[in-house]
Amino acid sequence: LRFPVICIDGPSGAGKGTVTWRLAQALNYQLLDSGALYRIVGLKAFEAGLITEDTSNAIDEQAVLALTQNLKISFVPNNDSGRVDIIVNGEAVGEQVRNETIGGYASQIAVFPEVRQALLKLQKDMATRSGLVADGRDMGTVVFPDADVKVFLTASAEARADRRVTQLLTAGQEADFEAILATIKARDDRDENRATAPSKPAEDALLLDSSTLDANAVYEQVKQHCRDKG
Ligand code: C5P
């Protein structure tokens, strides 16, 4: 018995999180937030002193791998936040793991092939119990190459930075457009140009640019694509 898998890949801020959540709710599928896995490893590596603020310092891959192998990670849907809560070794991880600093740490350890390999089984196993909607960079290319539906959701770096600014201002925080844009571009660059599992569309993925679309329009187009794929 094989359960259906829907992959939603693309850079951060393109709207993957929202469409993934809505699909998982509508279809009653599990949700894999693969970025959260890399974020947790990035956070733990930082806490262990393996990542420093100076990005030119080399990171000890074997030490990050050892730390990764000791993590037991699971996800619990949270209807209030509209995403999954992350449970690591039995404890819920706070929302701070979602911030841009941790996103940067995540992309620094995400270049390591052995770390990616160590996270592979957990990801694949999530498709063995029920249908799955998987959000990430390499869901359609590496983790679930046989997925039923693949979407690569992008938006211009400027549109994504604009959204981020609005989010921060709405939350009563400060936001500097140029600084945010530079951070987004640096993370995209690292994710797209690494040797192992770079962020890129699968050959059979639907390419969708959300620069001028709202979340509802994105959801409707992805839903239609799922219907087309049967
Ligand atoms: O999607 P999110 O912003 O949470 O991902 C954080 C980082 O984790 C990405 O910038 C990327 O470096 C890494 N990642 C990855 N492969 C995935 C998901 C995330 O390399 N499937």
From TrEMBL:
InterPro entries: Cytidylate_kin, Cytidylate_kinase_dom, P-loop_NTPase. It is an enzyme of class 2 (transferase). Keywords: ATP-binding, Cytoplasm, Kinase, Nucleotide-binding, Transferase. It comes from the Bacteria. ATP binds at G10, P11, S12, G13, A14, G15, K16, G17, T18. It catalyses: CMP + ATP = CDP + ADP; dCMP + ATP = dCDP + ADP. The keyword Lipid metabolism does not apply. This is Cytidylate kinase. Residues 6-225 form the Cytidylate kinase domain. Belongs to the cytidylate kinase family. Type 1 subfamily. GO terms for molecular function: kinase activity. It comes from Psychrobacter alimentarius. Its EC number is 2.7.4.25. HAMAP family: Cytidyl_kinase_type1 (MF_00238). It is found in: Cytoplasm. The gene is cmk.
